[in-house]
Structure formats: structure tokens, C-alpha cells
Amino acid sequence: QAQQAKFLSDVENELEELAVTITQAKKMVELIKGAAAKEREKVEKLFGEASEVLATFQKEVSGFIEDGERSMLGEAEADLRWKEERRAKLAQCKQNLENVPSSDTIYFLQEFQALKVAMEENLSPALSFQNELNFTKCTQAVSAMKDLLSAACKNQWHHLQGKGIDGLSFQETEEGLCSPSPSARRSPRHPPSSPLAFIIDLDSDTADKFIQLFGTKGAKRVLCPIPYPESPTRFNNCEQVLGVNLMNRGNYYWEVEIIDGWVSIGVIAEDFDPRESYNRGRLGRNEKSCCLQWNGQNYVAWFGGFESVIQQPFFHTIGVFLEYSEKALTFYGVKDSKMTCLQQLKVSHFVKGQFDPFQNKINHQFPSLFLCKLKPAFFLESVDAHLQIGPLKKDCVSVLKRR
To answer: Which neighbouring-strand residues pair with 61?
Structure first.
């Protein structure tokens, strides 16, 4: 009986303990449900606000396109009407002149004078299309926004899963640009581990008259000059164009597709005079710029008028990695998520008994280039040369991530 009483007492104690823990568990369940409900409510509210932001942006972009279309159409339609009216007037004057009897000299002279006056009327002004380039930036802007949103969603999802931030590590700078964290530096002979995915827009105010721009990402050399408006930053003697972007700190990485022809890709000082002669104005033929050139047979690195021929096969995609603090510029051939170092421009000590004129030029004058603000630069050397600015290939993103 004593054992039975002890057993029943133990059961009673266990029941009381379970009752307490059940109460605690119920409170925990309710707490989790309440926290989840509040979090769900906050998330739904934030998604709603994000949707409103996107809807506002979509409305603004659509309105921008409509305004650009309205402006361009008004100018184009006015020009069309003027040409049609002029053609009709000239045709009528010509018909009147042909209908004059050969014996009526005075009437003939009157109609001839009328035709002459019509011919000498001032031509309509050339179409300016001031908003054309901005008008065609919409696709690139929305695409860039979509890519950033997609990357941010992926990174935050990985973060929620406890995997950490997956992808490129950026830090905001004073000018709104980004730089990778200092721990992201790697050996210069290996692909960059966490560079800035630099977004480049071509500057229409710098494009030579023989360069046709396709939006802000494509450029092609053409035979017929394009009537660009006057600009103090426009190249006059070289078929070159710059990016609008300035680089003066941190690390920057971008990619360029060589679609056709001879193309040079590099950087140039912001204060470079675009009116320089052809021999001095070309990328890499002066101390204010450097580049990687594809000449149809080889890649060639240029700086200060000195060259270095590179024995590598052709790559359609060229990666450019600028390390401003390291005073280094590296060119990569990109293919199938692999990056081949083609050439690095950086001060380097010679091995005793060796002398390289190109590297000697680099050692003496290349660091001074980084005293300037730099811009991406492109030289389309051959007729029909054609290039396209990135975005980065998806299969290369993993190579660029921190390892």
C-alpha cells in the first residue's frame, strides 16, 4: 500500500508538472502565432508599399516615353508637312512653267521667276530630337532596376535561410557609387573576387560624328556622319566615345561585347582634350589614357604610345577590372564562366637583366593617371566596328563572387 501510495503521488506530481508545461507550451504556441501574424501583416504592408513604388515608377517611365514620343512626333510631323508642302509648291510652279506658250515671253519669265523663288526658299531646320537619347534609355533603366531587384531578392532570401549574403559585397560611397569590401582583394593574376558590377551609360555628348549610338549601351562606326549637336566634350578627330560615369575611388568591373571589327576598350582622364589630333587623341597613344585593342589578329595593350602584344585567342567578351587604390587595370577574356587574364597594367619591378619598354613606361607614368578622375572609353577603329556594353553574363557571376 505504501508503494502504491508513493506511485500515485508520483503520478500526481507528473500530472501537475505536465499541466504547467502544457500551459507554457500553449502560451508559446499563441506567442508564435501572434508574432507570425504581426510579421505577416508588416510584410504584406511592405510588399504593398513596394508595389506602389513599382507602380509609380512604371507610371513615370510610361509617361516619360509618351512625352518623348509626343515631342519627337511633333517635330517629325512638322518636318514631314513642310517637305510635302514644298514638294507640292515646286511641282505646281514647274507645271505652270511648262504650260506657258512658247510665244508668251513675259508670262514665261514670270513663272520662271516664281519657280526660282520657290527653289531658293529656306530649308526647314534639321531635326534635333533633343530627347531621343533619354527617350531610348527607358529599357536599360527598367532592365537595370529589374536586375538589381532580382539580385536583392535572391540575397535577402539566402540571408533568411542562414546562408549569409550571397553575391557581390558593396559599400556605398559619397558619390552613390559602390566599392567592394577591402577583404575582397585577390591576386592580380586571378579573376577579381568581389568587384563592383559597374553600370556604364555611353555619353552621347562625347561620341564622334562617325559613331552611331544604340540607346546608351551600343555603339557602331558608320560611313555617313551623324549631325550631332555641338559639344565641347565631343571627339573631333577620333572615332571614340566615353561613358558618362566617373571613377575616382574603389574598384570597378564591367564587360564589353566585341560584336564586329577593330575595337579598343579602356579608360581616359576626365580632363582629356577631345580635340587632340588623331595620332595623339587615340586611346593609349598618350599618357592620359590606356586600352586593350583588338586589331583583327591580336590583342594589344597600349599606354603612352607604347604597346605590348598579347598572345591569346579572340574573346567576344572583355572584362575590365579597375582597382583605383591599387593603381591597377586588368583586362580579362571571358568565356563560359572562365576569366583569362589578358594583361594587367600596374607598376612592376624588372627582373635583373631584362628590359621591357612598355613596362618601363608603365612604371614611370601610369600611376599619375590615377591622380585624375577616370572615365570608361571606347575607340571603334574600323568601319562597321560594333560593341555593346554588358550586363555581366549570368554564368560569370559565380566567378566574380567572393571565394
So the answer is: none
C-alpha–C-alpha distance, residues 391 and 78, integer Å:
38
Rounded to the nearest 10°, the torsion over CA 216, 220, 223, 228 is 10
CA distance 399 to 403: 8
**Grid cell listed for 345:** 597594367
Strand, helix or coil for residue 372: coil
Sign of CA dihedral 280, 281, 284, 290: positive
Task: List Cβ neighbours of 178 (8 Å cut-off, separation of 6 or more).
Answer: 170, 171, 172, 196, 250
Q: How far is CA 246 from the centre of its chain?
A: 12
Q: Which residue has the cell 503521488?
A: 9
Q: Read out DSSP for 68-80?
A: HHHHHHHHHHHHH
Instruction: Please list the pLDDT of the chain residue by residue as tens digits (403 residues).
Output: 777 777 788 788 888 888 888 888 888 888 888 888 888 888 888 888 888 888 888 888 888 888 877 777 777 788 788 888 878 887 887 787 777 776 767 777 777 777 677 666 665 555 554 444 556 667 777 877 787 788 778 777 776 766 543 333 333 333 333 333 333 333 344 444 345 678 899 999 999 999 999 988 999 999 889 999 999 999 999 999 999 989 988 889 999 999 999 999 999 999 999 999 999 999 999 999 999 999 989 999 999 999 999 999 999 999 999 998 899 999 999 987 788 999 999 998 765 556 789 999 999 999 999 999 999 999 999 988 999 998 776 555 455 444 3
Distance separating alpha carbons of residues 167 and 395, to the nearest angstrom: 13
Q: Residue holding cell 558619390? A: 175
Query: End-to-end alpha-carbon separation of the chain, Å?
Result: 71
What span, in angstroms and rounded, lies between the C-alpha atoms of 363 and 350? 10
**Would the pTM of this model clear 0.70, i.e. be above it?**
no
Q: Which CATH number fits domain 202-389: 3.40.250.10, 2.40.30.10, 2.60.120.920, 3.40.50.150?
A: 2.60.120.920
Break the chain into its structural domains and give their ranges. Answer: 1-123+134-155, 202-389
